[in-house]
Write a structure and sequence with these properties.
Layout lengths: L4 H7 L5 H16 L5 E3 L3 E3 L9 H9 L9 E3 L16 H8 L1 H8 L23 E2 L2 H11 L9 H8 L1 E3 L13 E5 L9 H15 L4 E3 L7 H14 L17 H4 L7 E5 L1 H11 L10 E9 L1 H13 L9 E6 L1 H9 L2 H7 L3 E4 L10 H6 L9 E4 L2 H10 L3 E4 L2 H10 L4
Parallel strand pairs: 2-3, 2-4, 6-7, 6-8, 9-10, 9-12, 10-11, 12-13
Antiparallel strand pairs: 1-5
Length: 421
């Protein structure tokens, strides 16, 4: 790789050993992928090491002792437990004790303890065209697509980019790799894309068709920010989509033609109501009228407005969560604090729900492998209802429960009834 004079000084140790070592790793990484030079990154979303993975927490604690410090704004992704309310959620103490060790390590490195999969809701909104580095598939696709910032899937190299402020110019940082590859003509009416779960189903259908390539949607109707987050998260679940274009909704293209950068689509697909229904059917393995014991909303993490909606629904229906159901709404700790100030959390919890921060069911102690390690019953959940394809897809495998994909209101009805209506 071609280094600037500043980068040569960094590599030579002028900025300290941790910076020199981090840059050396990035040089090897860039060389392996044929990158020509570095670019300056302005923001990082960091992998918050989780105690359900062996060695994860120990690694960051050890790394913090080297004196490494981040040099750009750096937020953190989700953990394996709610650090404030782990006990009431049934998390074994060893998981909490180990997980809590990341907090002083992150603070020592200058990393912000956001512990969320949606840092954009906390004001981390990198500008169009800026180079960033991120983990968490739903955040990555939102940054790339809706905002038009540029990031690859960061992995462990997010750490070294945050410490140096550098990243090799390659992958989705390059103009030519951001062109659309597949065209999707969305033959859906407003009644077919009413709910976040409908957009999630659309993303799940399309992601399975394109894999790791770049879909272009000719229309998405009147999609909201929440709809776009749900769409992106599902695209990155059934496939490994890192970028999509939807002219009128995403940042980089004013037209379908512009999204393809003058190229022809590899494939063109029509998306029909039957395609959306098929996703609901695929991810619903609970029989109608079947008992359920878990309802979860907030994958990706809910906003303050989404929490307010749930509280309003519960008040309006004078509803209580069924005694056989655990009802989790996952969010970040800053949003939970704001929701507490507004009385939203109190309303939800008086109705029998839990507003959970820092984590989600698929990342916590309820995983089958973790349950076996700590002698917990397997599975922890028998039948889960959710409005997220991402959650439904992963908990089926990782927790081992039956699932149902439903619009938000139907999830709330199930939580109250204790069964899938």
């Amino acid at each position: 790789m071609n280094l600037t004079e500043q980068e040569k000084r960094m590599l030579g140790g002028e900025f300290g050993e941790p910076v020199a070592r981090a840059l050396d790793y990035l040089i090897q990484f860039g060389d392996a992928f044929g990158a020509d030079r570095f670019v300056d990154v302005v923001y990082a979303h960091y992998p918050a090491e989780m105690s359900i993975y062996r060695g994860n927490v120990e690694d960051v604690v050890e790394y913090a002792e080297t004196g490494a410090m981040v040099c750009i704004p750096t937020t953190t992704s989700t953990l394996a437990c709610d650090l404030d309310r782990w006990k009431e959620h049934g998390c074994p103490q060893p998981i909490y004790d180990l997980q809590a060790a990341v907090v002083p390590a992150h603070r020592k490195m200058g990393i912000l303890g956001t512990y969320t999969c949606t840092p954009q809701w906390l004001g981390f909104v990198p500008p169009k065209g800026s180079y960033i580095i991120s983990v968490e598939s739903s955040a990555i696709i939102y940054f790339n697509s809706v905002l038009g910032a540029r990031t690859n899937r960061g992995g462990l190299f997010t750490r070294y980019a945050a410490v140096t402020g550098k990243y090799p110019l390659m992958g989705y940082l390059l103009d030519e790799n951001r062109a659309g590859t597949h065209l999707f003509r969305v033959k859906l009416g407003p009644q077919d894309l009413l709910h976040d779960s409908d957009f999630s189903a659309l993303g799940f259908h399309v992601g399975a068709l394109v894999g790791s390539e770049v879909p272009v949607f000719d229309t998405l109707g009147t999609a909201t920010q929440d709809n776009l987050v749900a769409l992106g998260a599902a695209l990155a679940t059934s496939g490994s989509v890192t970028l999509f274009h939807a002219p009128g909704h995403t940042a980089e293209s004013d037209s379908v033609e512009e999204a393809f950068q003058g190229r022809q689509p590899k494939e063109t697909h029509n998306v029909t109501p039957a395609d959306i229904r098929s996703v609901y059917e695929m991810l619903t393995t609970i029989d109608p009228g079947g008992a359920i014991d878990f309802v979860t909303l907030g994958c990706p993490h809910y906003t303050l407005e989404q929490l307010r909606y749930v509280a309003h629904w519960l008040r309006e229906h004078d509803a209580k969560v069924h005694p056989n159901v655990r009802f989790w709404i996952c969010t970040n700790r800053t949003t939970r604090q704001a929701a507490t100030w507004e009385g939203i959390v109190q309303t939800i919890e008086q109705a029998g729900g839990h507003v959970v921060c820092d984590t989600c069911p698929v990342e916590c102690h309820m995983r089958k492998s973790t349950c076996k390690e700590f002698g917990l019953p397997v599975p922890q959940v028998q039948a889960m209802v959710t409005d997220s394809c991402k959650m439904a897809r992963y908990v089926g495998d990782l927790i081992g429960c039956k699932t149902a994909l439903c619009p938000k209101d139907d999830c709330l009805k199930a939580a109250v009834a204790g069964e899938l209506s």
